[in-house]
TrEMBL record:
It comes from the Bacteria. GO terms for cellular component: plasma membrane. One of its GO terms (biological process) is microcin transport. This is Peptide ABC transporter permease. It comes from Bdellovibrio bacteriovorus. InterPro entries: MetI-like (IPR000515), MetI-like_sf (IPR035906). The chain crosses the membrane at residues 107-130, 150-169, 200-219, 254-280, 300-326.
Length: 333
């Protein structure tokens, strides 16, 4: 884990610092635009340009010191690691707030959609995959396979635009966007719940549509392999009901490949989709990451990189633990 963490952070830190258009360049551009509105003759302009270049040198040095760019790249990275030991990611150049506060402020949207989509995906796809496996080759299996492949072929961008234009705009069945209504704070507890649910329906469809096909197909194929096993045939030969054979003997082993994806449980804390958040006007982690990259907000980028890498690595460990719980034959000793 430690080499992986250092590899991710070093590469990210180097790339964002070598990219053009950093905060100093953006600040200087804003200063030039702010002072470029005055008029004057050609002689005055010439003198002004010489004065600007002299001032700019002083301004550049001051900005470098302010943003910490007066030190070499490797020294800045070591300073970042030192501050990281105190969980201090610095201050956002854009929001002028601590990076931790900026990221935490985006959690409600991403966490809500991440947890809900993860729960609903597994809740629907596991039973669907089991039923498809038990009826493999039949009409039900073919129809559901066709439907899943159809939904998988629809890009979330196109689906989001369709839902906004038709379902929300033309039919007025859902809000056009946002995470809650304007009068959310004045609503009762139940009304708040229904209001959030009303706003979540369309974005959730876009979040989940791609994962349905992958997880359902994986569950179906895994269950088919297990059903063909000798111990399943033996259980049937003993006269056990088909329901008991499937859910007591076959399901647990069929869940082993599915357990890999459960590591994504940790990823829901930083879940975010730039396209979906842009379409539905959701202020989440995905949009924050995109805006930070475009504005070269290095501290926010590194904060998101650190959290994402730690979450993904913890997810891998969690997947290994789930493997052991599902299949006692697996031992990492």
């Amino acid at each position: 884990m430690i080499p992986t963490f250092f590899g991710i952070t070093i590469v990210t830190f180097a790339l964002i610092n070598m990219a053009p258009g950093g905060p100093i360049e953006q600040k200087l551009q804003a200063i030039r635009f702010g002072s470029g509105g005055g008029g004057g003759g050609s002689t005055g302009s010439s003198v002004g340009n010489r004065g600007d270049s002299a001032v700019n040198e002083e301004v550049i040095e001051a900005l470098k010191k302010q943003y910490g760019f007066d030190k070499p790249l490797h020294v800045r990275y070591l300073i970042w690691l030192k501050n990281l030991s105190r969980l201090d990611f610095g201050e956002s150049f854009t929001y002028q707030e601590p990076v931790t506060d900026v990221i935490i402020s985006k959690f409600p949207v991403s966490l809500t959609f991440g947890l809900t989509s993860l729960f609903l995906t597994y809740l629907i796809c596991i039973p669907l995959g089991v039923s498809k496996a038990t009826k493999a080759g039949g009409i039900y299996d073919r129809l559901t396979t066709f439907g899943l492949n159809l939904t998988y072929s629809i890009p979330p961008l196109i689906l989001g635009i369709f839902l906004i234009v038709v379902v929300a705009g033309k039919w007025n069945l859902a809000p056009l966007g946002g995470f809650q209504s304007d009068d959310y704070e004045s609503l009762s507890t139940w009304a708040r719940f229904t209001d959030r649910l009303h706003h979540m329906i369309l974005p959730l469809l876009c979040y989940m549509i791609g994962g349905f096909t992958e997880l359902s197909t994986l569950m179906r194929n895994s269950m088919l392999d297990v059903i063909k096993s000798d111990y399943v045939r033996t259980a049937r030969a003993k006269g056990l009901s088909e329901r008991k054979v499937i859910f007591k003997h076959a399901l647990r082993n069929a869940l082993i490949p599915i357990a890999t994806g459960l590591g994504g449980f940790f990823g829901v804390f930083l879940a975010g989709s730039l396209i979906i958040e842009q379409i539905f006007n959701l202020d989440g982690i995905g949009l924050l990451g995109y805006q930070s990259i475009m504005s070269r907000d290095y501290n926010v980028i590194m904060g998101l990189t650190f959290m994402s890498s730690m979450v993904l690595m913890l997810g891998r460990i969690f997947s290994d633990v789930i493997y052991v719980m599902v299949d006692p034959r697996i031992d990492f000793k």
